[in-house]
Structures are given as C-alpha cells and as structure tokens.
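User: Before I run my own analysis I want an independent prediction to cross-check against. Here's the chain; please return only the structure tokens and, at the end, one sentence I can use as a sanity check.
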Amino acid sequence: MYLIFLSIILPLTLLASLPKKYLLEAQVQSEDYLYDVGGKDQLYHNNEGYFNFKTVKINLLEPITSAHAYARFEFIDQKKNQVIVERVNILELIPKLDFLDERQWAEYILEEYERIGFIFRREHNEFQVKLRKGATKAEELAAKRIYRINITNNCLDPGKWEMILSSENNKNFSRQLASKVNYNQSSILAHSWFQLPEEFYDKLFRTINPHLLVDLKKNYDQISEKAETVKINLHEIIKRKKKLKIELLELGQNTNRELKPLDVEQAYKKNFKLVRSPASVKTFKTVTKLPTKLAKFQEAGFYRSKNPEEFDFSWLENLRQVELYSLDDKESDTVVSVELGGQKSPYEIVLGRLDLALVGEQRFWQLPFGYNPYPKVRRYNEPSSNLWFSPRKFPAEKRPFLFMLDKKEQTWVNNQANGIEKIQLAWESAEKNILEIYLISYERITPLWMARVKLDASLVDRLRVKRKLRN
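Assistant: Structure tokens:
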C-alpha cells in the first residue's frame, strides 16, 4: 500500500515545491587539455573566454508529471554569448529502472553510472545560437560552424551532466585524412560540466521511479556491495529453446591478435595513450598476463594521466566458452542469448534478447551492461527508422540485457570493478556467417577479449530472410 501511495502522491506534492529556475556554475578545461575525444575547433576553450560556457540556466516550463519535465537550457559563455535549447523533456535523461524487486540495486548501478544523452541538430532548429553585441569576426565565424549540441546525464556522480558543442570542420580535408587524430569533419568547440542540485535530481529520479527500493543516500561502493548479493535468475527473464550449433574459430587470448581500436572513440583514446602501462600490453594474450593501468575519469569530468586505475584481467584467460541459445520468442526465430564462460571461469557474461538480424558488418552493434540499457546518445527528435530510440518504448518481453554473474552463486557482479564496460558485435564480412564478439574495457578505452564464431547454415538462412523483412 505504501508504494502505491508514493507513486500517486510524489509527482503532485513533492515536485510542486521545486524552484522553477536554476542558475548553475559549469566547469571547463583549458585550451591545452589533451583528452577530449574528437578534433578541436580553433576556438576550443581559448584563453579569451569565447565559447567557454561557465554558466547554465535551467527553467522549468510547466508543472512536472510522471512522464514529462519540460525545461529550457541556456548556456552562457564568459563573453555573454548564448546557446539555447528551448524545450527538453529532462525526465527522458533520468534512468528508469525496470525491475521492481531487489534486482533494482544492480540495475541502478548499471544505469545511473552510465551515460544517457541527447543530440540536438541545428538544421532542424532544435537549438539556437545568440551572439553578444559587438561580437568579433572570429566569434561570428565560429557561430556559423556550430551544428550540434549534446546534453548528457553522465556516468559520474548522480546529477553530473555535461554539454558538448560541435562545429563543422570542412577545411584541409587531405591533412585531416593523413592525421592520426582526425577521423571525421566534426570538431569540439566547447565542453562544459555542471551539477544539478541534489534535491532537484533526487526528486526527478523518484518521479520516474515511483517504486524505488534503492537507498539513494548510500554511496557507490555501498550500493555496489549490496547489489553483489542480489541473485539474477536468468530463467525468470528469458526462456531458452535450444542450444544453437556454432563453431568457435578463434579466441583472442590464444593468438597474438593485436589490441586495435574498433571505433573512433577507441582510436582517439589509443592516440591519447589512455592505456597507461605496461607498454608490453599490446595483444589479447598479454592483457591477461599483466596488471593493466587505464587512465581514470576524474570527479570533475576530465581524464587525468596521473593515478590511473589498475585492473587484473587474468580472469579473461579462462573465458573460453561461447554458447548461443535460441529463445522462446513467438515473433522471431533470430533472437538469441550469447553466453560467455568456461570451466575454470569464476564469471559468466550473458547477453540476452539479441536479434542477430540487427547486427551489421560495417558498424558494430553494441550494448552497455544493464537491463534494457540506454544508448549512450541518441537524437532528441528521433526518426522512425532510428534503431537507437528510447528503451522505454520496448515491450517488456523484447528488452535486451547484458549481465556479468558469479557462475557459482548466480549473483550480480560489478563489471566496472572488473574493468569492462560494454560488448560489441559485428559480422566478419558481407557473408554474415561469422560473428565477431568483443568485450570493451572500462571507459571504452580498448578491446580486451574477443572471439570469432561461425553460425550454422540454417540460422544464417533465417537471418537473411529476417533482414529482408526489415529492409
């Protein structure tokens, strides 16, 4: 009865007393900061203060309901230039927990300490740039280059958010192509971090999660300790039909396959040398043999090369088994679970409800750890064909998940504490019969583990039919 009462009363009374306007101080780095993942605009964090957005105004536009909290964002630089996003449903940036029992403790860790972001597009009039009176020619040119803004609920402390302002960079394409650190024609013009007031964020979180069981007053370590006592009964979540025939072609730790970046973010981080030590960690084999130090994301929201996080990845050596199971799904015969383990492995990693028809050969399908986890970033006004739509639109029986479990106890294991953050999958070639599986490190710095598996011909044929239906 208490929970029912809470879910009805909370949006009407607790939130009625919220201030309607917030004036926040933001943090920015200097122009010589090395580790922003992307090319840098010529005015990036310049010492003159142009487009150094150190002030954030948030205005609530109307009464908050259990589904909507519309707000106006105004980012103001040191010269009084403004970037304005007129109307954002910020409840869409608050993690919504799917579990209603003690499994919430694990889900909370996985989703509150992960990224949820929106991209706003200037060509669709989703934000506007207002220059100060008397703006310089450099400011006017920079304002014309601006074409994207991201607002993200970040993976650090609850309520720690960030704004990234991107500019087009269409000059010197040949030079960019030859460079080691330019992989597209987009540059970062500004990057600011700001903290929502604790009471404000707490009430937003409780509004979207009226049946919350997690004690939000506990810190990360306390919540993680509690979460690691929670059993995850996979049979309650998915129903396996049968084990699928596959051939394990390769395990990375058995070869000298090099640890190469799989996407743009990892490529930048390799060039930034965010794998701090030892220098001999260069292959999937050597990463299991030596403790590895990875650059740590600091509280302020920036990487620091000092005091890196050290991980022992020796447990990956025993991750030697890959199994695929078909699931009891009435609408599709291409939805599977991918289960990684081994006789001597203390852990198992389970990717559930993967529709193999969604996996491509030129771009990785990826999922962070969690139950029905959020994409790292998506368009605010999502197109109908976009696969990265809000997870809240998934029916319960379709929600994918990725868990790390204690093999013996079947309790949740904190994947971040063990140095891994997400999984990436792709087909080896256009034949789409050999699946490549990668586990990606803490802070998405480098791949750590990989396998190649060949699928049974009958499953490959079913996938071809399914893909044609999707097209």
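Sanity check: The CA atoms of residues 159 and 196 lie 5 Å apart.
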